[in-house]
Write a structure and sequence with these properties.
This protein has 15 helices and 13 strands. It is of the alpha/beta class and 382 residues long. The chain has two domains: 16-41 and 284-380, Aspartate Aminotransferase, domain 1; 60-280, Type I PLP-dependent aspartate aminotransferase-like (Major domain) (Aspartate Aminotransferase, domain 2), CATH 3.40.640.10. It has a seven-stranded mixed beta sheet, sandwiched between helices. Strands 9-10-13-12 form a four-stranded antiparallel beta sheet. The chain has a two-stranded parallel ribbon with strand order 1-11. Strand 9 (307-308) and strand 10 form a beta hairpin. The longest helix has 17 residues, at 286-302. The chain is globular. It starts with 15 loop residues before the first helix and ends with a helix. 46% of the residues are buried.
Length: 382
């Protein structure tokens, strides 16, 4: 008889991202589901990797990351947010942002702890909490997809260990502004609650808005693990390279776990990124680059039966399909892929308890213009 293993995550299946990307491949649909670009990376960045390999940087990197990259990260953060982390003790390079998030949960969450998660939420947060014996406490954005400080305040208990925030937000495309961040300061003031600030889309903010990083707020910075991503910034999601910033005492606990679940991150990529970061234009151009794609997709979408919501940041656009169908979002998303040739992500998997009657899909517009135009043509034909 085959052995049976009791599941530690009995309610978790394959992620919706894998499901919809697989469906797109099977039926030949245009893939606007999973959040990865379909355009090439900067040739210079590829050449820098090749140079690093030829120079012999092919063995284990130091556990926290190579010092030139950590120093480049510190310089970038200081130039943007006016605060200098200690590269020796407060910066760790990770195998992608998701590994950073998982490691944070492993380092701080204990059985009985509660972790407040803002729904709709990236799907790795809650399972990571549960694996380490914690309880996810889900608080929804308000009806307009804005941060609801009062709802978060009501969710805080003596068992609250961690608050997770995400700006720019996946999947809503919203951003936290200064008023929101100051409200979070007030919520956490006088408590020992830690903050996980997921800021992987930090440079993809539109319409002249500024990214309200937790780094800017000393009350938050002193209790925050800040998670960032090179994959999202430089269109290299397959490199799975990110980093975490945190005060020395918090980072010491993070590294205790990091050294055993990853130890170190791809060495030649680190050398390439350290050199590439020396030119700030490589990330300063991103708001303009992605806003042009947002606007191109938005103009097309408005000519379709879909009703787009406002996108303030990230490279995701939500749209309401109520005028087309009253089917549940997963059912409609699968039909949209198989019958109309466009793969998207339904919003309900991002919630513990999806709002009744919500009919929203998430489109990724980090695509070539031709891809977006072809998708729009299909969506307008519905």
């Amino acid at each position: 008889m085959p052995m049976e293993l009791p599941s530690k995550l009995p309610h978790v299946g394959t992620t919706i991202f894998s499901v919809m990307s697989k469906l797109a491949q099977e039926c030949g649909a245009i893939n606007l589901s999973q959040g990865f670009p379909d355009f090439p990376i900067d040739e210079k960045l590829g050449e820098l990797v090749h140079t690093a390999i030829k120079a012999g940087h092919n063995q284990y990197a130091p556990m926290p990351g190579i010092m030139p990259l950590r120093e480049a990260i510190v310089a970038k953060a200081e130039s943007l947010y006016g605060f200098a982390y200690d590269p020796e003790h407060e910066v760790t390079v990770t195998a992608g942002a998701t590994q950073g998030i998982f490691t944070i949960m492993a380092a701080v969450v204990r059985p009985g702890d509660e972790v407040i998660i803002i729904d709709p939420a990236y799907d790795c947060y809650a399972p990571s909490v549960e694996l380490f014996g914690g309880t996810p406490v889900h608080v929804s954005l308000d009806a307009d997809m804005h941060f609801d400080a009062d709802a978060v305040k009501k969710a805080i208990t003596p068992r609250t260990r961690l608050l997770v925030i995400n700006t720019p937000h996946n999947p809503s495309g919203g951003i936290l502004r200064d008023a929101d961040m100051r409200a979070i300061c007030e919520l956490l003031r006088g408590t020992d609650i830690l903050l996980l600030s997921d800021e992987v889309y930090e440079h993809i903010v539109f319409d002249g808005e500024k990214h309200a990083s937790s780094i800017l707020y000393p009350e938050l910075r002193e209790r925050a693990f800040i998670v960032l991503s090179f994959g999202k910034v430089f269109h290299i999601t397959g490199w799975k390279t990110g980093y975490v910033l945190a005060p020395k005492a918090l980072m010491a606990e993070f590294r205790k776990v990091h050294q055993f679940n990853v130890f170190s991150v791809n060495t030649p990529m680190q050398y390439a990124l350290a050199e590439y970061l020396k030119d700030p234009l490589h990330y300063e151009m991103l708001p303009r680059f992605y806003q042009a794609k947002r606007d191109r997709f938005l103009i097309g979408l408005r000519a379709s039966p879909f009703e787009p919501l406002h996108c303030e940041g990230s490279y995701f656009q939500l749209a309401d399909y109520s005028k087309i169908s009253d089917e549940p979002d997963l059912v409609f998303a699968k039909r949209l892929a198989t019958e109309y040739g466009v793969a998207t992500i339904p919003l309900s998997p991002f919630y513990k308890d999806p709002p009744p009657g919500q009919r929203l899909l998430r489109f990724c517009f980090a695509k070539q213009d031709e891809t977006l135009d072809n998708a729009i043509e299909k969506l307008c034909a519905i």
